[in-house]
Amino acid sequence: MAVASCSPERDGYLPFRRILPQLVLLASLFLLNFLSRIIFSPLLPQIEQELGFSHTVAGSFFLWISAGYFFSVLSSGFISARITFKWTIFCSTLATGCSLALLSACQDLPGLRAALFALGVSAGLYLPAALSTITGMIAPPYWGRGIAVHELAPNVGFVIAPLVCGIMVRWATWRVGLAILGAGLVVMALLFGLAGKGGRQRGRPPDFGVLRDFLTMPRFWLMILLFSLAICSTMGIYAMLPLLLVSGQGMDAGTANRLLALSRLCAIVMPVAAGWLGDRFGNQRTMLVVLLLAGIMTVPLGLLAGVPLLAAIFLQPVIAVCFFPSGFAMLSATGGRERGAAAVSLCIPVAFLVGGGVMPTLIGSIGDHFSLGAGFVVAGCAMITAALFAAFTLTREMPVIPVGGRNDF
Q1: In this predicted structure, what is the pLDDT of residue 396?
Q2: What pLDDT does 3 receive?
Q3: Contact predicate 58/82, CB 8 Å
Q4: Would you list the DSSP string of 321-369?
């Protein structure tokens, strides 16, 4: 079925322009949710130096957040089944704000790790409920564009996190900054509770039948692999890049954070273009090409210096962020409309744990034993290998699921 033949009103959907204000509200919630989880990246050089952490310990900060996120997303269906997707989003945003307040009061490493885990648990409830809310409001042929608007949030977060970090260090402390960010999340939770629309449906608790169906589906395991490396290409690389610039390139922390912010500036609008490309050329083809190119641009981060390194720092995120609109559309299609939320709830926690937790820790460990640059090279090669393997597998062994009525290959 061609996109032009789809009538949203006839199929029970509002026109896309009518949904846009709610998408912007959800994207604002996602921005604060995402910012709360990545703010430690630009702070790592100072934390590592102040507390005497190794690269491995510093990288493991994200492993603790990812572990909480893993637990939370897996169990999100139990909560949304009882209180609807809308109120799951509300509770997630409110609890994330409270977790940041708790983090601001931590005085030792064990307490910090426990609070980071709690932050991951709180933040992890958001994404499955938000994606289900979006796909419930928008006609399937426009899922790529709707999700692309939502995906603007993490790219804005990548840009402003180093700037927020700079404000924390210059005008107050990181503890005061976390407390203020937490207060902002609480306010936004209340606003969404009053003004948010959509998400009236209830989720489904995970059951062994659904779990068995997905675990026996080769395509689903492949999606886990692809999302793991895609998350590494964005969050994992972002998490460890300040350490690479400061420890490996001898750059001062302030300059490294400003460069980190500038490098993500051009990536802000890329998900919108990526959503259009996914709708035009096929989501499956788009996500694989993007992951391949992201891997190719990650390898030079560990090998180059000077101007060539700066070019790679700016090009890599512009490519990497384009994976997610098409990736989420394909992941939702893997489970179908009835089980799309279940596919997200099962895939994302594992992928986030691997790509956003294990991979930064691995890069740090390689940095302790060899160099941080070698860790980036290993991560880039893993992305390239995964993209090529998936392209070969999907074209030769498994049928493609049409999205919006078109075949991707």
Answers
A1: 64
A2: 39
A3: no
A4: TTHHHHHHHHHHHHHHHHHHHHHHHHHHHHHHIIIIIIHHHHHHHHHHH
Q: How far apart are CA 310 and CA 316, in angstroms?
A: 10
Q: Is the dihedral of CA 278, 282, 284, 287 positive or negative?
A: negative
pLDDT score, position 341:
65
* Centroid of chain to Cα 145: 17
The gap from C-alpha 378 to its chain's centroid, in whole angstroms, comes to 21
Question: What is the C-alpha end-to-end distance of the chain, expressed in Å?
Answer: 16
pLDDT of residue 409: 34
Contacts of 50-56 with C-beta under 8 Å, sequence gap 24+, read 51/109, 54/364, 54/368, 55/243, 55/247, 55/363, 55/364, 55/365, 55/367, 55/368, 55/372, 56/361, 56/364, 56/365, 56/367, 56/368
Question: Is 0.85 topped by the overall pTM?
Answer: no
Per-residue tokens: 347: 């895939």
* Residue type (1 letter), 52: G
CB 290 within 8 A of CB 274: yes
- Could you tell me the domains of the chain? 16-396 (1.20.1250.20)
Euclidean distance between CA atoms 236 and 38, whole angstroms = 10
CA distance 170 to 29: 26
Indicate left, alpha or beta for 282 from its phi (over 0: left) and psi (-120 to 50: alpha): left
Beta strand segments in 99-139, E: none
Measured CA to CA in angstroms, residue 182 lies from 80, 100, 186 at distances of 23, 5, 6
| Rounded Cα–Cα distance for residues 143 and 279 (Å) | 9
Residue 210: which of 347, 92, 23 has the closest Cα?
A: 347
Could you report the average pLDDT of every consecutive run of 10 residues in the chain (409 residues)?
44 66 87 89 76 76 88 79 86 93 82 90 88 79 75 81 81 81 92 79 70 80 93 90 85 83 80 74 85 94 89 91 84 68 77 90 89 92 94 66 39
